């Protein structure tokens, strides 16, 4: 069980900024037109909210299709004006949507810095930049990232919870994953250097970076075939790296699975003072501020 914190400086900050719940992260207005607009944009459990999300998904798909058609030279030559008008229509619509999202939340700065906030901005910014810098319209392909919003409209609670749990597990285990990746980098760097010495430029290993590239493609079991060892020692090293690659794949899986299991054991109760979550199942007090939990 949690006890009250012994000192204020030992308390961890409330995770509201990292929460995947828009109510907690961005803040829902108490009333008025902003609350009504919030319900339409951020909540899909109402008829208007579901219709808005469906219309948004359709607009995203059509806008991506417009960008794809623009990249086809014969289509662009024949329907260039229509495609240009359609692109600016979608740009204006998405600009209005972005402004509406900023206006209807209590913490607009937090939304603007979030992943989806940045994607929303990047989806319209290239069109305006293209007015001054020719060729920047290629950046419009970033709109396809907005299709991640389909998780909201599907409203499959089970999948949304698992998606949030996976994100929290990755965030909590980021240090372990970083250490694991550093160890992998050391292995491929050392073995790549050994292969450069063993095989040499005569067999295509012209430099240490080239040999490290081969080591990465071999350890990940990709094996493009553009570089292959010719000596017996080189083949033995390659065989060892292939087997090592299969074993390494299990390490991050175990780290993330362990963290997900831990997340499942945490209570869903939120602190009434600081809205912090992630408390142990038997906790009586908030781990952030020491307030008694409901």
Give a description of the structure.
The structure is a single chain. By secondary structure, the protein is mainly α. Helix content is about 60%, strand content about 0%. The chain has eleven helices and two strands; from the N terminus they run H-H-H-H-H-H-H-H-H-H-H-E-E. Helix 3 (about 45-70) packs antiparallel against helix 4 (about 75-105), helix 8 crosses helix 11 and helix 9 (about 175-200) runs antiparallel to helix 11. The longest helix is centred in the C-terminal third of the chain and has 33 residues, at about 230-265. The two termini are about 15 Å apart. The model is unreliable at about 1-15 and about 145-160 (pLDDT under 50).
């Amino acid at each position: 069980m949690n006890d009250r914190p012994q000192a204020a400086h030992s308390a961890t900050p409330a995770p509201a900024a990292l929460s995947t719940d828009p109510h907690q992260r961005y803040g829902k207005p108490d009333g008025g037109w902003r609350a009504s607009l919030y319900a339409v944009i951020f909540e899909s459990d109402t008829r208007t909210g579901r219709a808005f999300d469906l219309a948004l998904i359709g607009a995203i798909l059509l806008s991506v299709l417009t960008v794809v058609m623009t990249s086809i030279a014969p289509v662009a030559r024949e329907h260039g004006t229509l495609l240009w008008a359609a692109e600016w229509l979608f740009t204006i619509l998405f600009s209005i949507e972005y402004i509406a999202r900023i206006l209807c939340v209590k913490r607009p700065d937090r939304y603007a810095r979030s992943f989806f906030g940045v994607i929303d901005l990047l989806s319209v910014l290239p069109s305006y930049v293209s007015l001054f810098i020719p060729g920047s319209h290629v950046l419009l392909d970033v709109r396809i990232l907005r299709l991640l919003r389909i998780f909201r409209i599907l409203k499959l609670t089970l999948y949304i919870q698992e998606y949030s749990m996976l994100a929290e597990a990755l965030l909590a285990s980021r240090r372990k994953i970083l250490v694991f990746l550093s160890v992998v980098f050391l292995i491929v760097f050392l073995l790549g250097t050994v292969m450069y010495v063993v095989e040499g430029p005569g067999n295509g290993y012209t430099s240490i970076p080239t040999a490290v590239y081969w080591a990465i493609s071999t350890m990940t079991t990709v094996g493009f075939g553009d570089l292959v060892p010719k000596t017996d020692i080189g083949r033995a090293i390659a065989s060892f790296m292939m087997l090592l690659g299969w074993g390494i794949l299990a390490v991050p899986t175990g780290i993330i699975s362990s963290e997900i299991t831990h997340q499942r054991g945490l209570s869903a109760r939120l602190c009434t003072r600081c809205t912090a979550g992630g408390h142990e199942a038997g906790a009586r007090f908030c781990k952030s501020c020491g307030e008694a939990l409901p």
